[in-house]
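Treating backbone geometry as a discrete language has practical consequences that deserve illustration. The amino acid sequence and the backbone structure tokens for this protein are reproduced below.
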Amino acid sequence: MVAKRCWLILTMLLYALPAQAEQVRIAYSGVSASGSPVWLAKEQGLFARHGLDVDLVAVRSAPLQVSALVANEVQFVRGSATSMLSAAAQGAKLKIVLSLFAERAAYDFLVAPSITKPSDLRGKKVGVQDFSGLLWSLAILSLREMGLDPQKDNISIQAIGDSTVIAQSLASGIIDAAPLDKLQSSRLQGLGVKVLLDLTTRIALPSSPFMSTESYVQKNPQTVESMIKALIEASAYMRSQKERGVAVLQKYLKLDRALAETGYKFLLEELTPYTFVTPKGLKTAQDVIALRDPKIRNFNVEDLLDQRILQKVVQSGYVDEIERKYKLK
């Protein structure tokens, strides 16, 4: 009888213990406004609410991100579809699971004050983060839109650092041009830098998608679902709570209040409850990579997509529930 009572008490205690949170590491490529939902999810305990113990890791090189994913040193990457597409075409088993941003390039191609027309870029220097990521893709696409070819027109594309370093380099004259997001564009225009091309309505390209490995998605569907739900809630929180959103931008991007409010306004124009990355957007990225590696055209871009868990979450009514919770519906 005593043994039975002890077993009953022990069972009750075990059930009373909180479930241990799943440890997850998310790598991100740089400090930009598109990272704000992830930072907010961490600070507001949204990951924890969904049973995840998340560590955010800055990994600014696309090849290192791929290596970290494949080695399971990180479980997710928020980064460039272009760089992940290149890696997948070379054999890496990667999957895009969702994005939180509209599938367009909300960027400006910025130039030094002395440049007034596309032909002035001949013989000049364009800054990017690396030679496979989003900014490199946007630089190539921008030049092509303006009828320029880096080789024929002697335009030097230089990998100099993340968007903050690129902005500083453009402002100081180290480089002559660069594609940068709307917030950086707004800040630099106040210093005399000019917009030569607005890319927003011209280029359909996946924006900051979240990726994992095929094996991780297959073996850990519940963790992936929890991750997706936490990010969807973070998007709703960001869109409904201006003060917290502005505060996050101020903290991580080192902005004053006025610029953070400008950044928040731009963010609201692109941040969605969720976005399914499309083959059309990936084909845009594929076309850019094909300029230097024609063999990538043989890769089926749909092999990079696995958004079945996102589809399940949407069909469950969770998104509507969250939108109502934050009074967005």
Notes: The longest strand covers residues 94-101. The first helix runs from residue 2 to 16. The mean pLDDT is 91. DSSP finds 15 helices and eleven strands in the chain.
